[in-house]
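Worked example

This section walks through a single chain of length 414. The input is the sequence exactly as stored; nothing has been trimmed or padded.
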Amino acid sequence: MSDFPHWLADDLALSLQDKAANKNDNILDSENGYFVYHLDQLKQHLANLQQQDVVKLWYAVKANPLSHVIKALDGQGFNFDVASVGELQQVLAQDIAPERILNTGPAKSKKQLQYFLEQGVNTFVVESVNQLIWLNECAAKLKVKPTVLLRVQLQWPDGKKNPLGGNSLTPFGLSTAKWQQISLRDYPALDICGLHIFQWGNMLSNEKMYSLWSQMVAPLTELAKQLGMALKILDLGGGLGLDYLTQTNTLSWSQIIRDLAQIKQQAEVTELWLELGRYAVGECGYYVTDIVDKKTNFTEQQLVLAAGINHIIRPAITEQAFPCTLLSDKQQLTPMVDYHMHGPLCTSLDKLGTLPLPTNVAVGDELIFGYCGAYGFSESMPFFLCHNVAAEYVFEQGELTQVRAPQVASEYLR
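Given that input, the structure is written out below as C-alpha cells.
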C-alpha cells in the first residue's frame, strides 16, 4: 500500500526522492523551489474528458502555458483559448493551427484584433461595442469573416463575489440590455452567431453548476431573439473546480456531460463550448521546496520555506492552501501537528497556508504541494526580493526532465 497521499503519484514521488538525495547545495545556483508536471497523468485525464460528444473543449492557456502542457492537450484534441498576444505566440509556436484558437479577454485593442486576424485566428469573443466595431473594420480590411461570440454579463439574485465576478460588476462582457442596443446589420464583416458567459470560478458542486447554467438559458436565448441572431454556439466558459482544501469534493464529469446535454437541448444550439483551465491541468502539477527554518512563535508552530508566493501565489489570493506532504517517510513515524507555512519574502502576505505535518519535520526537509498544475509558475510574483525564478520539470514514462532552469536575479536585473 502506498505511503503517499492519494493526490501524489507514487512513481513521481519516488523519482523526486532520488532527486532530493542528489540536490545541489551551492546557494548561488541551487533550486529554492521548482514545479513538475506529470504528463502521463495529464494525458490520461484529458483522454477521459474527451470521451463524449456533447461539448467542444477549449483549453484556457492562462492556466499553464508551458509548451509540453500545450502539446499534451493538442494530442488529445483540445482547442485553445488565448487572451493575449504572448499566449497566441506560445500556442502557434507549438504548431497549433490558428483555426483552433479562440481569442478571449477584456483588453483587446484594435491593433491586437488585427494582429490575431493576420495570424489566421478566426474565432473571437467580443466583450464591448468598441471591440465589435474594431473587429468589423479589421475583418473588412483583410477580407475575412470571423466567427464572433458576444460575451454577456448577468446578475444573480443570490450571487456572491467571485474571482470572475459572480454577482459583481466586472469588465467581462456587457449586460443583455446593452447588447440589445446593437444591430447585427452594422457588422457585415462578422459572423455573429454565438454568446459567451462565464462568471463563476472553481465550482465544486454539480447541482450548483447546473442551476447556474439553467438560469443562463432564458436570458441568453431571449437576447439572441431580440438581436435576430441565429444562435448556433453557446460558450459557458469554465469554472469547473478542484477541492484544494480536502481533496474529497470531486465533480462528476459524467454528470457534467449529462447536465450539459440538457442545457444544449434547452438552448437549441448546434455547439456547446467549455473553456477548461484548472480542471484540465491542475491535478497533474506539483511544487517542491525546502524548509529553511522551524520555530514556535507564541502559540504557533511555524515553518519558513525557501520559496513562497514569489513562486506560487494562489494561497495568498484565495486563502486556500494547496495540499502538502513531506517527500520523506517521516509522516509514518510521528504524530501530526498544524504548521503555519511562510515563505521568504518580507511581507506577512507570504504564507502558503496552515497544514498538518509530522512533529519531527526538520530544517532541510523537502515539501511537495499538490494540485499545482494550474495557476502556479505563470501566476507567481517572482521578482520581489530577487530570489531565483522557479525551475520547471516534466515527468513522463518514468523520466524527470528539466525544461526550464532556475533563473537567478543577475539574469533579469539591469
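What to look for: Residues 10-38+283-411 form a domain with the Lyase, Ornithine Decarboxylase; Chain A, domain 1 fold (CATH 2.40.37.10).
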